[in-house]
Each structure stands twice: as C-alpha cells, then as structure tokens.
Backbone:
C-alpha cells in the first residue's frame, strides 16, 4: 500500500469539526455532473484522520504498515457507508428533511461498533485528559485494526450529533458546493464554507449581475 501521495494537505477542513469535514470528503455531492471523491483509497482515510488530528502520526504509521489490502478495502467501504449516513442526517437537519430510518440504523450500528472497540484502562496523571489518575477509555489492542479511523470518526460524529452544536451546522450557500460547516461566527451569519473560494465566487457573481442590470 502506498503511504504517501506527497505532503500537500489533501483536505480543506473548513467544516470546523472532523465529522463535518468527513462528510465534505465527498465534494460537490449535489452537483449534476456528479460528486468528487476525496477518499479514493485507505491511504486517504488515514491522511484524513491524521490531518484532523483524530489519529497521531504514530498511529497512522502503524496502520499503514500493518493493515492488509483486504482489511483496508473493507474499512474504506465502511468509512464511506458511515459518511453517507452522516450526510443524510446532517443535511436532514440543515434542510429540515428527516433522514431515512435505514440511515439512522446505519449510524446506530457504527456508533455501537466504535464504543465496543475500546478498553477501559487505569491512567496515570500524565496520560489522562484532566491530569488526574483514574479510569479512561483507550483503543488499546484495537489500535492496529483497519477500522480504527472509522470508529474514531463515528465517536466524534456521535458527540457532535448529540450536542447543542447541531443548531450551528450550515451548508455552504453555493448550490454546487453545499459543504457543511459549524457556524461559530458571533452573529451566526457565516454563509460560505470557505471565504477564499465560495465566498469570493458569490461576490464576483453578484458584482457581474449588477453590471449587467
Ligand atoms: Zn462552499
């Protein structure tokens, strides 16, 4: 398996949350000419997990070196299945259009799967998130499983979906884009996924429209 495709960041990450950036890995999903697949292979999934800091470089390297092609292909299919169920649910929320029951069942299966593959451990202060010793969840022996990136995205997504931040999720105002993002602007008025790309395109379009009037 090829480990690198160069060092350019592959993902834009303008969503402001790993679960939204994950849905955005199918770009231009509502475009008539068809979407753009950014998760072309398992290596892309690892790069996504690393770029969003869901996994660290050591974990990514271990997976890249140990996962066999069959397991990698299954994990990629699983990742895309999760992504599409997340997309149905997030866009369902944004567009006030409930997702299908099958999408919710798919999410449920993925969320359960993520929580079933963790180990409860006793952590020393240096290892724990709050600086105290105590028990905490860890991927433990599952760290070398090809599905680790899928579980970790599932976990991030379930946290977001069950939080108040769901009210802040928006889709980009450019119809062919519609990338999801978390609107953390003060007045909740953000309209574009990325000001440099979609924001500028819309401003230019309005400018030309005015000149033609
Ligand atoms: Zn956009």
Residues:
């Amino acid at each position: 398996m090829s480990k690198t495709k160069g060092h350019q960041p592959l993902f834009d990450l303008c969503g402001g949350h790993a679960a939204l950036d994950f849905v955005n890995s199918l770009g231009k999903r509502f475009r008539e000419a068809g979407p753009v697949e950014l998760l072309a292979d398992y290596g892309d999934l690892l790069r996504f997990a690393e770029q969003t800091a869901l996994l660290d470089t050591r974990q990514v390297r271990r997976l890249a070196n140990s996962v066999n092609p069959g397991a990698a292909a299954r994990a990629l299919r699983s990742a895309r299945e999760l992504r599409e169920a997340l997309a149905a649910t997030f866009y369902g929320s944004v567009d006030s259009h409930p997702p299908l029951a099958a999408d919710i069942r798919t999410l449920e299966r993925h969320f359960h799967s993520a929580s079933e593959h963790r180990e409860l451990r006793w952590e020393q202060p240096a290892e724990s998130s709050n600086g105290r010793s105590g028990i905490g969840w860890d991927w433990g022996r599952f760290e070398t499983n090809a599905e680790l990136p899928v579980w970790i995205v599932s976990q991030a997504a379930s946290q977001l979906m069950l939080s108040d931040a769901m009210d802040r999720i928006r889709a980009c105002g450019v119809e062919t884009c519609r990338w999801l993002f978390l609107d953390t602007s003060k007045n909740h008025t953000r309209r574009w996924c990325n000001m440099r790309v979609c924001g500028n395109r819309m401003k230019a379009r309005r400018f030309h429209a005015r000149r033609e009037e």
Observations:
- DSSP finds seven helices and six strands in the chain.
- The chain has a mean pLDDT of 91.
